[in-house]
């Protein structure tokens, strides 16, 4: 009986040791899957100084044709094997990859493919095209780049119902300046000014509908376009002046 007890005890200890070893190994595996990142400013400096590196746009061919960073090649995960010859022959050469911002996984997926192919100096520009464009840095624009888009709009009545009955399924964003937001905004709205919208969009969940609004539509249209480039699936626009004209309330906040 004592032998059985000792054996059972040893088995439990062995299992615990194995579990701890596995738990310790997991973070190492996760860290190995990540890549170094580079800021917008550092990448621009590299381009301005004509540093030797390969820049890869991991977005779709349509997105690349619409607009992309100067000197960038288009290599998607799907077509990686066919596009492998575009990468430098020297496997230690610097390769920088980007896609549509911090919530876009395309650049990391292509980087993982490149790593599996033997490339060892891979860096991800996590902010991606929308932030680069927002900062006014150089891009190569296609023929349809400035083409006007049709937004999906909510009337004041529709928005009022959504905020009362379905608010958990949406995020309402006021894209005006901070002082305008403080003077009066729709209750429950976040404030992300249009001029820095892409760089601060990481707080917006992709699994919810995103509703952007401003006073008359210009800035919310800009934010809407940025959300499209960030690949948000459900985007809507509302107009604050129409909300006020309908006699619906706004709230104030302190700066």
From TrEMBL:
UniProt xrefs under InterPro entries: GlpE_sulfurtransferase (IPR050229), Rhodanese-like_dom (IPR001763), Rhodanese-like_dom_sf (IPR036873)
Signal recorded as keyword: yes
CDD domains attached to this UniProt entry: RHOD
UniProt KW keywords: Signal
Domain of life of the native organism: Bacteria
Family annotation (PROSITE patterns): RHODANESE_3 (PS50206)
Segment forming the signal sequence: 1-30
Domain (Rhodanese) ranges: 49-141, 166-252
SMART domains the UniProt entry points to: RHOD
Protein name: Rhodanese-like domain-containing protein
Organism field: Geomonas terrae
């Amino acid at each position: 009986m004592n032998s059985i007890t000792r054996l059972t005890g040893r088995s439990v200890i062995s299992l615990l040791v194995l579990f701890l070893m596995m738990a310790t190994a997991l973070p190492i595996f996760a860290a190995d899957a990540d890549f170094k990142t580079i800021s917008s400013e550092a990448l621009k400096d590299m381009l301005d100084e004509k540093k030797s590196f390969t820049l890869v746009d991991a977005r779709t061919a349509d997105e690349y044709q619409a607009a992309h960073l100067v000197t960038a090649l288009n290599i998607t995960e799907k077509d990686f094997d066919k596009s492998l010859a575009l990468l430098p022959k020297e496997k230690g050469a610097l390769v920088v990859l980007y896609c549509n911002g911090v919530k876009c996984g395309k650049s990391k997926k292509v980087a993982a493919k490149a790593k599996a192919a033997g490339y060892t100096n891979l860096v991800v520009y996590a902010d991606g095209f929308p932030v680069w464009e927002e900062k006014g840095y150089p891009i190569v624009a296609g023929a349809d780049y400035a083409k006007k888009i049709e937004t999906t709009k909510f009337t004041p009545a529709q928005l009022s119902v959504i905020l009362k009955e379905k608010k958990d399924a949406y995020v309402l964003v006021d894209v005006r300046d901070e002082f305008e937001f403080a003077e009066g905004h729709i209750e429950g709205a976040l404030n992300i000014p249009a001029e820095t919208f892409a760089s601060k969009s990481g707080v917006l969940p992709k699994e919810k509908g995103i509703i952007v609004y401003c006073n008359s539509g210009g800035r919310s249209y800009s934010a809407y376009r940025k959300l499209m480039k960030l690949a948000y699936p459900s985007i809507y626009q509302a107009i604050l002046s129409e909300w006020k004209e309908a006699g619906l309330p706004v709230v104030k906040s302190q700066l």
